[in-house]
Specification:
The chain is α/β, with parallel strands linked by helices. It is about 45% helix and about 10% strand. Helix 3 links the parallel strand 3 and strand 4. The longest helix is centred in the last third of the chain and has 17 residues.
């Protein structure tokens, strides 16, 4: 179903929490949803890279979708990571997401066989011809090894009304984001990615929001609100105050996911910081750096206030 107004603001990726036995932490998911809404987010994204979606079974995805939909109660739009390495499985995935509460479909290009521009166009066109839900093209070449050309994005948006959003994750994100904004105008709504490591710079070139990992939504919301209120210097100062911490959740090598979960665990939002293979648990050295980076900073996740007012 088409949304009346396009999404903007902060739409964090929901981490998938696990219990000590490796099963899904259902209460942790409920806590995450309420924590994010308490932080003032505009939407919540499920099944992104920072959700460990690639390591979840079909039954687990169904459980997560059902839990989030039930706990959210329509309070904010839900973005579902969907797609696949070929057209048929991608369409199947997107139709499942539509049936299970997706307000927006976030889709990376196929990447098992690196496609050329024609194949990228055909992939998204086939999905756009099938679904009724707005599509977000996730341009994440670091994650999948495939970059979506800007002219293909614009062509798809011109030809299919469901193609409405871009998540720009080609580093440095603000550079390609500006190219997309300049080329597409109002046709495409551009979000930043890569864990908001360039969020302030992205706002300066015309993005409408960010989709970071799940442990600092309150920070991203403050930066966004300040910038939108015309308080650019204050937004910049707030962003750069937290940037050393944000960078630690963006490091390559497989430990970044554990950083996000470590903070959520410390705040009592989830039970463990367990990650699934091929992610790597954070070692003591990295945890020490995270602790050091957070010194003197405030996070809603660590404040004990995320579940106040009965949430």
């Amino acid at each position: 179903m088409m949304m009346k107004n396009r999404l903007k603001g902060v739409c964090p990726i929901l981490p998938t929490p696990f219990l000590e036995d490796g099963s899904i932490d259902v209460q942790g998911i409920r806590n995450e949803v309420n924590f994010m809404i308490k932080a003032g987010v505009s939407g919540i994204a499920l099944f992104g890279n920072a959700s460990e979606a690639f390591a979840l079974t079909g039954r687990e995805k169904q459980l997560i979708a059902d839990t989030v939909r039930e706990e959210n109660r329509g309070r904010v739009p839900l973005v579902f990571g969907a797609g696949g390495t070929g057209i048929a499985p991608a369409v199947e995935s997107c139709l499942w997401a539509e049936e299970n509460g997706a307000d927006i479909l976030m889709i990376m290009p196929p990447h098992m066989i690196k496609p050329d521009a024609k194949r990228i166009y055909e992939f998204y066109a086939a999905i756009a011809q099938t679904v009724k839900t707005p599509i977000m093209i996730q341009d994440a070449p670091n994650a999948c090894g495939v970059a979506v050309p800007v002219d293909i994005m614009v062509q798809l948006a011109k030809e299919y009304e469901t193609v409405q959003y871009i998540k720009a994750e080609a580093p440095p994100t603000f550079r390609k984001a500006k190219q997309i904004v300049d080329a597409a105008g109002d046709l495409l709504t551009v979000f930043g990615g890569l864990n908001a490591t360039f969020f302030y710079e992205e706002l300066c070139v015309g993005v409408v929001g960010t989709m970071p990992a799940g442990e600092f939504p309150d920070v991203a919301v403050r930066v966004y609100d300040l910038f939108e209120a015309g308080k650019k210097a204050e937004a910049k100062a707030e962003f750069y105050r937290y940037l050393p911490f944000i960078r630690l959740g963006s490091i390559p090598g497989g430990m970044a996911m554990a950083v996000h979960k470590e903070v959520l665990k410390r705040g009592g939002i989830i039970r463990t910081s367990m990650v699934r293979n091929p992610f790597i648990p954070a070692d003591d050295a990295l945890i020490g750096l995270v602790t050091d980076a957070l010194e003197g900073l405030e996070l809603l996740a660590l404040s004990g206030k995320w579940n106040e007012d009965g949430e």
